[in-house]
Amino acid sequence: IANGHFDSHVRDLAKEIAKKGRLVWIRQMHEFNSENTYQWCLYPFTSAKIATFKRALRRLVNIYRQEKAPVKFQLTFMAKNPHNDGTPFSQFYPGRRYVDHVGVDLYVNAGSRLVSLKVRLEDDVYSQLTQFSKPIFIGELSCTDKGLDKAKWIHDAWNDLALHFPKISIINWFFEDKGGKRQWNLHSPAEVKAFV
Description:
Layout: H1 7-20, E1 24-27, H2 47-66, E2 71-78, E3 101-108, H3 117-122, H4 126-130, E4 136-143, H5 150-164, E5 168-173, H6 189-195
Parallel strand pairs: 1-2, 2-3, 3-4, 4-5
GO biological process, one term: substituted mannan metabolic process
Keywords: Glycosidase, Hydrolase
GO molecular function, one term: mannan endo-1,4-beta-mannosidase activity
């Protein structure tokens, strides 16, 4: 991406969006601070990988702008770097001109402690996001129901968002089950009730 290999594809999409004239939000290379989830994941982090990532993001944004496509760009971190790596979110930031919205994807997996959303966000996540002075979102949020009280977690999450995190303006729940212990959808009346 950073070297222009996909420019023609991106430009074609940008032209189509411009032709339609409707605002589109794009979450490019989400969860980039993860490990092995996608081809664009950067862990283990190096200054060269981070520089290439920033160059790629800027290149993509510039193409959409050249084509005058009505696009807003979301920068999506995983809430936690792999292996407790302490690299701050700011190291990956491509600059204010290239980001309209900052956010995280956050999951509670089977076998993990039932950590509340409040605890997860207060663990140096929300404070890092607010430093960018951009609107904040949660791109993907879910909790498994395998071995955890999912209904209670959901209820508490909505409460915590309302009371403690006023700058989070968009929350997307991840409803797709991935099999095994990663059951992200709502499976019981109690979970549905907690969600709505």
